[in-house]
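Hi V.,

You were right to ask for the full record rather than a summary. Here it is.
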Amino acid sequence: MASRTAAEAATLARALIGGINMEALPRPDWLRPLGTREDAIFEHSIPVSPAWWRDALAKTPFAGEEPPSEEHLTRGNLFDLAEDAKRSALGARRLLWASLSWGTGRRHRLNRKRIESVVRASDGGDVLRQAAVLSRTDPRAAYQVLRPTKSNALACLGPPFFTKFLYFAGGGDPEHPCLILDSFVADTLQKECGWTSLTRTDVVAFCHVPQILRTPCRLGS
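Predicted structure:
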């Protein structure tokens, strides 16, 4: 597949996102293949605290749903939970706990409040399952399930963390349209790629990054 020019990428971007004026994104020098896809993506790990999750969930109706018990969580561990997240509320909650564990490591900031918000929401697991299903085909709809208004569907679970859940719900498929969008990603795209119009909640534009960049940058390959 031939690489697109910057002008072609910009034209495609505008067509994909309905006229939003988004700059073409040049590839920064550091964006180079880091070995095999298996090594660079699936084996990328974060140190976590499985005992913290066991204790935190033991005091809720969700006892026994803690993430895998290793001291490190890899992206591959979370991708393995994706299919069950589409099938049931239980599977969706397990992917959420693992996504939060991967996202916060051993710090756990606000995780108790996030757990409490799922406990309080009688349909919390079903909301997550619906979002996981939609993440495969309709990023905007998946996003709106978890943030239907200016408030989040689940308290303390905003875009920086629920986009992690939506990303892992893709099971590692390089064609999956939902990517992680938090302050670190937004800042990097602004500083390194010149995408100055992007905000950390601009998922409508951001969900098209794979289509725009995959060819010249080989993202996810």
